[in-house]
Write a structure and sequence with these properties.
Blueprint (H helix, E strand, L loop, with lengths): L1 H20 L6 E5 L2 H11 L3 E5 L14 H9 L2 E4 L9 H9 L4 E3 L27 H18 L4 H27 L7 E6 L3 H7 L2 E6 L9 H13 L4 E5 L5 H12 L5 E6 L14 H16 L1
Parallel strand pairs: 1-2, 1-3, 3-4, 5-6, 7-8
Helix pairs in contact: 2-5, 2-6, 5-6, 6-10, 8-9
The protein binds zinc ion.
The site of zinc ion has 7 residues, from loops.
Organism: Sediminicola arcticus
Subcellular location: Cell envelope
Family: Belongs to the bacterial solute-binding protein 9 family.
């Protein structure tokens, strides 16, 4: 009898352990934060994992607060994948609490060596978190995420491996294509003025000088002084176009535009760029690859 009870207890423990890695429908339950991360994990995980993205199109991760529903999604997940470097500034405490409880959380920024990151005193983590704008980084992050998924769900390791490799190929093709598009823009016109400092990795990787009206995070507003300085810069460099961002209110860039125009230089709003969130689901810009191409085409066409 005693032996029987022990066996039942062991089976129950084994059952629980199994359950902690898999959902009741047998799928690994992954919760992601930004749309860029959700898209990448979907590319690697395919339909063998269940992915829930917390943030939708047009959502600013710097300001995003978790709802009660989000908190329960996070705590019920088998695996949580987020950006890190305080990109999701208001979720940091939740992630810390989850880690202290032994929940599996992964910051994709950990795939990049700190020496490759842009240091910034303006941001809480001391590093610029907009790492998805370097496609080389995104490839490293894809490899890292593939390994994590294989660890968490070894049964589907082959699928993750195959999907991950296919996604890297897509990213390689994207990089070749955007470099060709950028080549058509004269080097002295490669100056990008946007609403907030999201594009510094993009600038470093693809040869643009980048000026953001707000700091690294949208949590800090641009002051009158910032607008004045940047408008003088635009006039001095004879810049044709500046850009709004889909996840940041237009008003700061519109204020900059009127400041420039009032000084007698015409600057247009060259379009709306996707910075911290992808476009609508089901559209080309709703994917990382489509978003990147859209941004580069918009920038190059407006600055030509
Ligand atoms: Zn940002």
């Amino acid at each position: 009898m005693k032996k029987y009870i022990l066996l039942v207890a062991l089976l129950t423990i084994a059952g629980c352990k199994n359950k902690s890695n898999k959902d009741t429908n047998g799928k690994l339950k992954v919760v992601t934060t930004t749309t860029m991360i959700t898209d990448m994990v979907q590319n690697i995980g395919g339909d063998v994992v269940e992915i829930q993205g917390l943030m939708g199109s047009g959502v600013d991760p710097h300001l995003y607060k978790a709802s009660e529903g989000d908190v329960s999604k996070l705590f019920n997940a088998d695996l949580v994948i987020y950006g890190g470097l305080h990109l999701e500034g208001k979720l940091v405490e939740i992630f810390e609490k989850m880690e202290s409880q032994g929940k599996k959380t992964v910051a994709v920024a950990d795939a990049i060596d700190k020496s490759e990151l842009i240091s910034s005193e303006f941001f809480a983590s001391n590093y610029d978190p907009h790492i998805w704008f370097n496609i080389g980084f995104w490839k490293k992050i894809t490899l890292h995420t593939t390994e994590i998924l294989k660890e968490q769900d070894p049964e589907h390791a082959n699928i993750f491996e195959k999907n991950g490799a296919a996604y890297i190929q897509k990213l390689d093709a994207l990089e070749t294509e955007i470099r060709q598009i950028i080549e058509t823009l004269p080097a002295d016109k490669r100056i990008l003025v946007t609403a907030h400092d999201a594009f510094n990795y993009f600038g470093n990787a693809y040869g643009f000088e980048v000026m953001g009206l707000q700091g690294i995070s949208t949590a800090t507003e641009a002051g009158v002084q910032d607008v004045q300085e940047l408008s003088n810069f635009i006039i001095e460099k004879k810049i044709k176009a500046i850009f709004v961002e889909s996840s940041v209110p237009r008003r700061t860039i519109e204020a900059l535009q009127s400041s420039v125009n009032s000084k007698g230089h015409d600057v247009i709003i060259g379009g709306s760029l996707y910075s911290d969130a992808l476009g609508n689901k089901g559209t080309a810009e709703g994917t990382y690859v489509g978003m990147f191409l859209y941004n580069v085409n918009t920038i190059v066409n407006a600055l030509k």
